[in-house]
Amino acid sequence: xxxxxxxxxxxxxxxxxxxxxxxxxxxxxxxxxxxxxxxxxxxxxxxxxxxxxxxxxxxxxxxxxxxxxxxxxxxxxxxxxxxxxxxxxxxxxxxxxxxxxxxxxxxxxxxxxxxxxxxxxxxxxxxxxxxxxxxxxxxxxxxxxxxxxxxxxxxxxxxxxxxxxxxxxxxxxxxxxxxxxxxxxxxxxxxxxxxxxxxxxxxxxxxxxxxxxxxxxxxxxxxxxxxxxxxxxxxxxxxxxxxxxxxxxxxxxxxxxxxxxxxxxxxxxxxxxxxxxxxxxxxxxxxxxxxxxxxxxxxxxxxxxxxxxxxxxxxxxxx
Length: 319
Known about the structure:
InterPro entries: AlkB_hom8_N, DNA/RNA_pol_sf, RT_dom. The chain is of the alpha+beta class and 319 residues long.
């Protein structure tokens, strides 16, 4: 009976703490709504990786319309960004943004002095007290990280910094081989035009393609590589769909399996890249839909229809 009472008290305290965190979260959003970075696309309502990709490509393609112009992109992924956050640095920034002292002190107390141990079976490790990083899964942390990095902005009008959570892309719009503003943006030295990029003594690798928010972005801004890779991945998933069909599973189950395992691959950020696909790329994608029809014995809509529906949904959300 005593153990049950203790469990109830713990649950009541947990619910109270959770409610308190949500209330503080709403209070911070209200006080600092103007401080939220407009080019931070993570943890924001009605924003997604589609918007981050579209914004980045729009900047680059518009600039290429100018004479003697090109662009450079630096892709940065901070290692263990949430786990290495220093609460004291965060509090200084929150104070400068105008958050009241009592709420700053509450956040500092919440993030520091956290006991942590690891349990495996019946074995429990010794307790370690943490005063850096942030609790995993807490709804407050994404907002705090966004505010911590709100001042990571471009200092020159020809540069743009696009962010999605801790993934950061520096876009330099360059004309007449003048890379000075771009190179100053990421604090490096240069020897000549198109020379290697060096940050803190380390050479930044130049690649022909990179995975950018879930899509494969080529240096020539075409989508053949992305189409090829996602088609290959989708074909691998269709193998299991065919196996399920041979087991005589009903069509609704096959459809659910396809949507969860294959369509999610084909439609990831599709509003950002499908419109610029070549005819050959579109035919390659449509062959997947044909294979699905054969596997499910039902008619499947063309990829174009899926794109139009998703774009219409995004437009409604923006309005």
